[in-house]
Amino acid sequence: MIRISLALSVALFPALALADPPSARQLPKQLVVISFDGAHDNALWQKSLTMGKRTGARFTYFLSCTFLMTRADGKQTYRAPGQKPGRSNVGFAQSREDIAMRAGHVWQAHLAGHEIGSHACGHFDGKDWSKADWASEFSAFRAALANAWKRAGKPEAEPEGWADFAQGGIKGFRAPYLSLSDGLVPALKTFGFSYDASLVTKGPGWPSFADGLIRFGLPLIPEGPSHRPVIGMDYNLFVRHSMGVENSRDSARFEERTLAAFRIAFRKEYEGERIPLQLGFHFVEMNGGAYWRALDGFLSETCSKPDVACVSHAEALPLIENARKKADRSAF
């Protein structure tokens, strides 16, 4: 289980990303882009995959690589920048069987058209990391993914194509705590990432293109009776609703508020400029599962609407690029 503290609410609010004006860039479809950070709990892997199949949504899973190794493995093979060997802020796989099940879910998601991205490894704050520090973390992620089936004790079960997928199939990244440093973008480019999804925007915004990398941002969306802005992510709603303290008693009320916020944010874009709407979640069912239930309800009523596509970040990119080209504007 990911340990969540109120201190994260500060780290989850970095400098706002500024997107280009969307004039003359209207998409033919309203894009809804849903992502999950961590991607560890196997029961929630199955729950999300079932949700995706039922609603027609395809997700981006930003995987933390320590969930592909046991604690004993981590002590031998993983050392985060500035940390002792075998440390992780989010823990490790519970067993070799746990690794095998998770690797199977990763591959199932990949085959079903979902995207697997990187959430680094041990969920450390990289705000002071150099390019070399980030490169070390990305190398650890790539090695953990490549060796997952061996670490699970089932090398014979490794699917055909897994090695290529581990080496070159991970193109998206989201930083733990949405915390950035000057060394991040150079390291992302060196490791062949296509985009970073670690920014925050004042509202739904177009991805920006800076320093040779596409940058996505989670938006501030209006929420609650006073429509105060909050980052469109389950953790931030958790802090808003219950000060980051689990409160299952009021779960239904939190779900209702969250679903209302999603609907308002969606309607503004669907009936307006059709800027992609991005929403983020974790593999933790906070406040009695209020936010996952709100997501399920939102996708169930949204993804089947005319001119709506619920897609991963990777699928969104060419759609956005084509729309901009049709508008006689250069892509990014």
- Overall pLDDT metric: 92
Calculate the terminal CA-CA distance, rounded to whole Å: 39 Å
Label the structural class: alpha/beta
Question: Secondary-structure element sequence?
Answer: HEEHEHHEHHHEHEEEEHHEHEH
Quickly count the helices. 12
Instruction: Outline the low-pLDDT stretches.
Output: 1-15, 21-25
Give the beta-strand count.
11
Q: What's the main sheet like?
A: 6 strands, mixed
Kindly estimate the percentage of residues that lie in beta strands according to DSSP. Answer: 15-25%
Structure description:
The chain is of the alpha/beta class. It contains 12 helices and 11 strands. The strands form 2 sheets. Strands 1, 5, 6, 7, 8 and 9 form a 6-stranded mixed sheet that branches. Strands 2, 3, 4, 10 and 11 form a 5-stranded parallel sheet that branches. α2 links the parallel β2 (about 30-40) and β3. It is globular and about 50 Å long.
Top keywords for this entry?
single chain; 332 residues; alpha/beta; six-stranded mixed beta sheet; five-stranded parallel beta sheet; 12 helices; 17% strand
Short summary:
The chain is α/β, with parallel strands linked by helices. Helix content is about 40%, strand content about 15%. Strands 1, 5, 6, 7, 8 and 9 form a six-stranded mixed sheet that branches.
